[in-house]
Amino acid sequence: MAPDIEEAEPLANTATTSSPNNPIVKPKSDPILATCRCFSFVTVVASLLCIIANVFSAIRSFRNGYDIFDGIFRCYAVVIAVFVIVAETEWSFVTKFWKVLEYWAGRGMLQIFVAVMTRAYPDTYAERHEILLLQDIASYTLLACGLIYVVSGVLCLGFLKRARQNKEVSAQQAVKDLQELERRRAELEALLIVDTP
User: Phi-psi bin for 74: left (phi > 0), alpha (psi -120 to 50), beta?
Assistant: First the structure.
């Protein structure tokens, strides 16, 4: 059985440590997918910062009552920033209805739009420097993420990521199948030992 495990190793892209009776199979982590996950996390954090900055700005606009339109504008920015976060989860439900969010260039443009909305009307809160600082950090971080997404989308790196994800899923399935076969083999060997007189 050991030669079969060694032959399956290159196909499944896994590292195996095999003992004579029970092989332990561990899938290798893909550095491209790990980088994409880290970048996705940074994008979600930047979007959350944009939501916080826009919520504070909206509350301030509505409380003072001098600029209701700015408050409404901030509420729209919050809703669109939530779409950015949902797009980063890559739920099939979301990409089914909004195909443009499946492509990195589309996501990048949406992130740039939220960053610009967050940065709009900065001089209104001249006396509140912490809100202005939060808006600057959030908007420029999300703007950088959006630009990276647009450039990566133009270079078709999203296609590479999806191909690597499919490969990872098939490797994980191969590992599960191999573990199930080993478990079944152990059960059959136990039955043979019991049945032999």
Answer: alpha
User: Would the pLDDT of 128 be above 60?
Assistant: yes
Look up residue 4 and give its amino acid: D
Tell me which residue of 150, 142, 39 sits closest to 103, measured CA to CA: 150
pLDDT digits (tens, 9 = 90+) for 148-181: 999 988 888 877 787 887 888 787 888 888 888 8
Identity at 34, one-letter amino acid code: A
Q: How far apart, in whole angstroms, are the C-alpha atoms of residue 106 and residue 164?
A: 20
Q: Where are the alpha helices (DSSP H) in the chain?
A: 2-12, 31-64, 68-89, 92-97, 104-119, 129-154, 157-195
Could you tell me the two tokens for 80? 């669109």
Of 76, 89, 9, nearest in space to 44 by CA: 89
Residue written as tokens 């967050």? 118
For 25, phi and psi rounded to 5 degrees? -110, 125
Q: Which tokens in the block code for residue 164?
A: 């690597």
CA 175 to CA 171: how far, in whole Å? Answer: 6
Nearest-angstrom CA–CA distance, 197 and 195 = 6
Q: Are 115 and 73 in contact (CB under 8 A)?
A: no
